[in-house]
Write a structure and sequence with these properties.
alpha+beta, six-stranded mixed β-sheet, 5 helices, 21% helix, 41% strand, disordered N terminus, Ig_V-set, Ig_sub, transmembrane, Ig-like_dom, transmembrane helix
């Protein structure tokens, strides 16, 4: 144990006896495994006579210290970093074993203050892996206006409310394209264009490292020529066209009747 750490611990013991009592408030922080988290001291700037010590666990294992504005690191993992200006502690590439109680002790002009952080590290694979939604394959209605002059059928594979997954299109066993999301995503979509008469086998797959769901493409069901407006542009657009046609017809009849009466 270094001289500075020994001196600091002894000084903290006496400060704890004669100085301020430890606070009971603990700030809870949740973080994903592999991410970084910073435990803030709320200090604007560390003063030269400040003594700052970060410890971990119930045994108060020392992590880092600032003494006379010099940083001393006692962690052998190499993933901890101490901010020189504020004394805040950053844990990089955090792991599940880093979960636990972190305590900050600051001594300034004989006054002692404490902050405690209860850090919980969750494995991303534990979240939303029990259930993965089956991807939905649909006709891309945004391509309707151009599809009439194209020999290709535009499709979308979509999933909602997912995180830490990859969405992919496959042609047989060959990967065509993929997209990934780390944080929670309201909607994740991946486009694909195929020919109307394509006889190949296509599938859309959502997966994470321990689970997957597959939706196979039925080209004959989704991809029709634009002579059939319902299947080409989607039922919603077809209904809108029918309603507009009906309104135009009603307006025409009304105009004729008005002219006859006049």
């Amino acid at each position: 144990m270094s001289f500075f750490l020994l001196f600091t611990l002894i000084f903290f013991i006496f400060s704890g006896v004669f100085g301020a009592a430890k606070v009971n408030e603990i700030q809870s922080i949740s973080v994903m495994r592999g991410d970084s988290v910073t435990l803030h001291t709320d200090l604007t700037e560390v003063q030269r006579d400040d003594l700052i010590l970060w410890t971990f666990g119930s045994k108060d294992v020392p992590i880092a210290e600032i003494h006379e504005q010099v940083i001393y690191m006692y962690d052998s993992k190499g993933r901890f970093r101490l901010e020189e200006k504020t004394g805040s502690l950053t844990i990089r590439n955090i792991r599940t074993e880093d979960s636990g109680l972190y305590e900050l002790t600051v001594i300034n002009s004989g006054r002692t203050s404490y902050k405690r952080f209860n850090v919980t590290v969750s494995d991303a694979l534990e979240i939303n892996v029990a259930y993965l939604p089956v991807p939905v394959i649909s006709r891309d209605s945004s391509q309707c206006s151009s599809s009439s002059s194209s020999s290709n059928c535009s499709l979308l594979c979509s999933v909602v409310n997912v995180s830490h997954v990859t969405l992919s299109w496959y042609k047989g066993n060959s990967l065509l394209s993929s997209t990934s999301v780390s944080d929670l995503s309201i909607s994740l979509s991946l486009p694909l264009e195929v020919e109307y008469q394509d006889k190949n086998s296509y599938s859309c797959v959502i997966n994470n490292p321990i689970s997957n769901q597959t939706q196979h493409l039925d080209i004959s069901k989704l991809c029709h020529t634009c002579s059939d407006s319902v299947t080409c542009c989607g039922s919603t657009e077809a209904v809108i066209r029918l309603v507009i046609s009906a309104l135009v017809g009603v307006a025409t009849v009304t105009a004729v009747i008005y002219d006859i009466r006049s």
